[in-house]
Amino acid sequence: FFVVSNVPPGEPRGIHAHRKCHEYLVCVSGSVKAMFDDGTSREVVNLDQPNLGLHMPPLTWGAQYDFSSDAVLLVLASDRYDECDYIHDYDEFLRLESVQKREVNND
């Protein structure tokens, strides 16, 4: 796990997807908006209660923004940090997500 806090006003966090890692986001203090995109649709959830969480499975593009000044975002990760697991380019994410959907549909 790790926490994200003391985020300067207007600064987003995340802005990536993972190849294999699952993440679960909980804002334990304050509030933050969490955007998630599965390659087909995009939604935003306002994480503003410590009993509300968001599961980010692999190949989900995500970003967090509009952190309140007292926001503390807890991120539970299924794997240890591995830079090779990160996808920072949205077009690459869309390509990989599309390939995965084709593979699932062909099984």
Q: In words, what does this structure look like?
A:
This protein is α+β, with helices and mostly antiparallel strands and 107 residues long. Helices cover 16% and strands 43% of the residues. It has one helix at 90-106, and strands at 2-5, 13-18, 23-29, 32-37, 42-47, 53-56, 61-65, 72-77, 86-87. The chain has a five-stranded antiparallel sheet with strand order 5-4-7-2-9. A four-stranded antiparallel sheet has the order 1-8-3-6, with no helix packed on it. 19% of the residues are buried.
- Percentage beta strand: 35-45%
Shape: elongated
* Main beta-sheet strand count, sense and barrel state: 5 strands, antiparallel
Query: Taking Cα atoms only, what radius of gyration do you get, to the nearest Å?
Result: 14 Å
Mean of residue pLDDT values: 94
Number of helices: 1
Helix and strand sequence:
EEEEEEEEEH
Structural class: alpha+beta
Secondary structure layout plus pairing:
Layout (H helix, E strand, L loop, with lengths): L1 E4 L7 E6 L4 E7 L2 E6 L4 E6 L5 E4 L4 E5 L6 E6 L8 E2 L2 H17 L1
Antiparallel strand pairs: 1-8, 2-7, 2-9, 3-6, 3-8, 4-5, 4-7
Question: What labels describe this entry?
Answer:
107 residues; alpha+beta; five-stranded antiparallel beta sheet; four-stranded antiparallel beta sheet; 43% strand; elongated
